[in-house]
Structures are given as structure tokens and as C-alpha cells.
Amino acid sequence: MRRALPASRPWHSVAWLLWALAGAAVVQIAPSPVYVAIVIAMAWLVVEVHAPGGPYRRAFPILLTVGVLFSVVRVTLAVLTTHNGIDVITTIPHVTVPRLMGGFTLGGTIESSVLLQALAQGFTIVGMMAVFGAFNAVASHYELLQSSPRAFHELGLITTVALAFVPATIESAGAVREADRARTGGKVVRRGRVLRTVVPVLERGMERAMGLAESMDSRGFGHQPATRNEAVAGWLGLAGLLALGGAFLALIGRSTAPAAALGVCGGAAIACAAWIATRGHDRTRHRHRRMTGADWLMAAVACSAPVMIGIVSLAGNDTLAWLASPVTWPKVDPVVMLMTAPLLAPLLRTPARDTAPSPVIDLREPEPEPELAVP
User: Fold this and answer.
1) H-helix or E-strand containing 335?
2) Inter-residue contact 321 to 31 (CB < 8 Å)
3) Are 78 and 113 in contact (CB under 8 A)?
4) Could you give the CA distance from residue 275 to residue 266 in angstroms, rounded to a whole number?
5) SS3 category, 103
6) H-helix or E-strand containing 110?
């Protein structure tokens, strides 16, 4: 019997993963700030419509902030280390690092073209964080782990725990803050507040980690010896990684034919390793939800966006990327803007919300009943 569709999560987590990959591909193919801003707005809209209330929803703006911090670091490094002598804004003291560390100049001239180009490239980092932050907010990590092949079960488990790190930390910090306010009678005591927050959050994280380890140990995680299929898959995976490493070295040496051959062999070895490891185990999954036709349709519609933009890129569209030299406003193609519209496919089905009004509790004291007159 097929499992009923959850009202709070109308789309399967695999469909959300394909949607996130499509959004990331759009950001990579069309890194112009205009198109990246459109993708960020779409991701924000998807979170507002589909993300259930809780720490995963509250983690979305924090992940965006992390993306902004990463982009600021990248812009700073690019401005301090890239110099072309064009459009100089100012000059700062400079120092040349030793040749052993690269021999580049740190400081010197600050050019406006380098600054703007670094800002545009840093904005793509924010776009990537927005797409995968939205995926983290709307997808069910448990459902995604259930749908992963047996060969990637351990990797999926590690990824699931890692994705839950930021929301769990937010939830712990909120609980610690509420407990601190309760101890102080609702007053904000700033002295020692950081220490009173950090120590309990770390303590709760250690307790949660110990509980997870004990739970996995009680279920026998990793206690079974490796089977023959797992051994064969492991050796094939190792051979595939070595072949891909050799292909990378061949590309550095500009040996195209050996690089292509090693790349094909490495990819085939890794694919065979995954197939053998998955085929060798019959995993039991409780109440497994399968992808429906609507889920596959939504994923296909979302993936059509990077495919169409990729075709436009091969045709030579000059609005997909923006160059800051000479400094001009980014060009916008309405056709490319329409090609990003398939990323709004998840909005065709919205989660059911509880619209029932909350009961109103009357805290007033009841009026005394009138006394009966005794004749």
C-alpha cells in the first residue's frame, strides 16, 4: 500500500534535491548579479511557502549570512592580491610574500574593476548558499536518507547529521537564552551573557552527540563484518579514485587523451562500486515514501531551467556573465529571465496549513452568581 502524502511536505525530498541542484546549476551557468538575485528571491519565496516552522526555517537567513561572510573574505583577498593597474582607487602599503609561499604582492593598488568583479563573484556564493539553505529548510533529511542507495547510506547519514548542525545549534541557543531570562526574572543581564550561553550550548551538543552514538551502537551500526560485495566495491572505489587522480595530473600536464581515458575508467569503476555495494544488501526501510509522478514532473520542470540557459550559453548569449572592465551596468535578457521561471515549480503545490483559530482562554475571574432570595 502506498504511503499517504504528508500534508506538511507535499514534495519528496529527492525532488527537492534535484530542484536545489537545478538552482545551483543556474547560478553557475548565469553568474550575472541580476540572474543570481532572481534565484535568491525564488529560494526565499520557496522557503516562505514550504518551510515548516522550526529551527530549520530559522537557519535559512543564518546560512545566507554565512554566505555573505564568505563572500566578504573572498572580496578582501581578491582586492589585496589582484592588481592590473587599471581604474586605481587608492594605494595602500604592500608587501611581497616569499617565493616559497607564492611570491605574490599583498596590498598595493586597489582597483575598482577588481573590486566590482570580486563582488559579483562573491554574490554567486550567496546564491549557492540560498539554494542549498532553502533545500535544508524544506526537505526531510530522514526521508532523503531513506531514499539514498545502500552504497551511500553511511555518507548520507554523516551528511544528515551535518545538515542538522546549524538548526540544532539555533534551537539550543534559543532554549539557553529563555532559561537565562527565566533565572534573571526577565531582565537582560549583559555581563557574562556570552559565557552563560556558549557553555550550555556546548554541553547540550555533547549530550546530543553521546545520545546519538549510544543509539547507533544499540542498533548495531557498523558491527557487521564487511561482506564480499563490500570488499569488491571498496577496491573498485579505490581504483576509481586513483584513476581520477591520474586524470587530474594528466590534465595538468596537458595530456588530453590519457586524461580522458583515465577519467572514463575512474567514473566507470566508481559507478560499478556503487552498484555492487547497493546490490549486495537488502535494506529494510520502515514506511518508505516513494517518488510519485508529480514529484518527477516537478523535478523535470525545475531541471529544464539550467538546460535551457545552457543552450542559450552555447549560442553565445553575452548577458549571462558580467565583466566589470569596462564598468557598465549588467545586461538583462528577458528571455533568460523567463528561463529561470521553472525554478518556481514547487509553488504549484503548497503545504496544508492549520487555519483553525487557537482557542481563546478567558483569564478573568468569573462573576459571582446572584444569590437566590429566600422568602
Assistant:
1) helix 334-339
2) yes
3) no
4) 14
5) coil
6) strand 105-111
Contact 57, 51 (CB under 8 A): yes
HEC states along 252-320? Answer: HCCCHHHHHHHHHHHHHHHHHHHHHHHHCCCCCCCCCCCCCHHHHHHHHHHHHHHHHHHHHHHCCCCCC
Q: What is the pLDDT of residue 177?
A: 76
pLDDT tens string 319-334: 888 887 777 888 888 9
Residues 274-300: what's their mean pLDDT?
A: 74
Q: Can you tell me the distance from the alpha carbon of 185 to that of 210, in angstroms, rounded to the nearest whole number? A: 32
Q: What angle do CA 165, 142, 354 make, to 5 degrees?
A: 95
Its pTM stands at 0.70
Please give the full DSSP string across 182-215, using - where no structure is assigned: HHTTT----TTHHHHHHHHHHHHHHHHHHHHHHH
Beta-carbon contacts of residue 297 (< 8 Å; ≥ 6 apart): none
* Interval 335-368: pLDDT, tens: 999 999 999 999 888 876 654 444 443 434 444 4
Cα–Cα distances (Å) from 181 to 55, 191, 197, in that order, read 20, 13, 11
